[in-house]
UniProtKB/TrEMBL annotation:
InterPro entries: AB_hydrolase_fold, BD-FAE-like_dom, GDXG_lipolytic_enzyme. Residues 1-20 form the signal peptide. The lineage of its organism: Bacteria, Pseudomonadati, Planctomycetota, Planctomycetia, Pirellulales. Keywords: Hydrolase, Signal. Residues 41-242 form the BD-FAE-like domain. The keyword rRNA processing does not apply. PANTHER family: AB HYDROLASE SUPERFAMILY PROTEIN C4A8.06C. GO terms for molecular function: hydrolase activity. This is Lipase. The keyword Signal applies. Pfam families: BD-FAE (PF20434).
Length: 295
């Protein structure tokens, strides 16, 4: 009898370790009904719940794929989730208005799905940091700043999960879909009309007053508040100069400069790295995420 009790105690002590060792990579796990509503899971080996990097790929919300290399994070005890999502053209096909609601709402739903798997996947649901480049960066910032979209009264347990983040570190992010400030910051800016199903930025400017509710809802900067998580902003290209016409306005550090100003005014922790910044604390978004998620 004593041997049996000892074996049971030993099994209970080893259970978390055994479970962590048994977790395997999972690919194309559905979090919705659309073929693009799938994600990949790369678990870190740990006997306690792990932090999570939530990767949203770029591609203008019109292309791209979730394929990523999780090694740098897994080696530090951080699990990785990489998501696909509906493109804006899928939103058009499904009559989603505006079309950008499709990729952004998918990002929120995928995040809630991941939290719902916290027990099964050995995750710390509080420590989730988003990352991505370009449109994936914009989606990450939208999640970071938006009020919690959880519905505590929903009959769907996934919908009851939080959409808030612990931190976000992004590359070449668009920070707003509002053409007015964008053209003031960079007169040659042209990106973003497809988010609203329009042909060009001039059409967005013409309809700006009419579609302002859409612009405000889906622009990350419109949702900034003092309770937002720590943000890392990383940009390449030229030294940003507000009012200039950079070679790549779509990914210009000018947007990072303006977003950092807004976050500092709201007393939100922000790190901005771009050409011209000397001796940055973090060389890249990976370093930022590892530091914040393993503190």
């Amino acid at each position: 009898m004593k041997r049996i009790l000892f074996a049971l105690v030993l099994l209970l002590l080893l259970a978390p370790q055994l479970r962590a060792e048994e977790l395997k990579e999972l690919h194309n796990v559905p979090y919705g009904d659309h073929p693009r509503q799938v994600l990949d899971f790369y678990p870190a080996k740990s006997d306690k719940p792990t932090p999570v990097v939530f990767y949203i790929h770029g591609g203008g919300w019109r292309g791209g794929d979730k394929k990523t290399n999780p090694k740098a994070f897994n080696d530090k005890g951080i699990s990785v989730v990489a998501i696909n999502y509906r493109y804006v053209q899928n939103g058009v096909e499904q009559k989603v208005e505006p079309p950008v609601k499709a990729p952004l709402s998918d990002a929120a739903r995928a995040l809630q799905f991941v939290r719902s798997k916290a027990g099964e996947w050995n995750l710390d649901k509080e420590k989730i940091g988003a990352t991505g480049g370009s449109a994936g960066a914009c989606s990450s910032l939208w999640l970071a700043f938006h009020d919690d979209m959880a519905d505590p009264k929903s009959e769907d347990p996934i919908a009851r999960e939080s959409t808030r983040l612990y931190c976000a570190a992004v590359n070449g992010a668009q920070v707003t879909l509002d053409p007015k400030p964008l053209r003031e910051w960079m007169p040659n800016y042209k990106y973003g009309a497809h988010a609203f199903g329009l042909p060009n930025l001039e059409a967005v400017i013409e309809k700006r007053d009419e579609i302002m509710p859409w612009i405000e809802e889906y622009s990350p900067m419109a949702h900034i508040s003092k309770d937002d998580p720590a943000i890392g902003l990383f940009y390449g290209g030229e030294v940003p100069v507000v009012g200039s016409s950079p070679k790549d306005p779509t990914h210009s550090g000018v947007m990072g400069v303006k977003l950092a100003e807004a976050l500092e005014n709201a007393d939100v922790e922000v790190v901005l790295v771009h050409p011209g910044v000397k001796d940055p604390k973090y060389k890249n978004s990976t370093e930022f995420l590892i530091d914040h998620l393993t503190k």
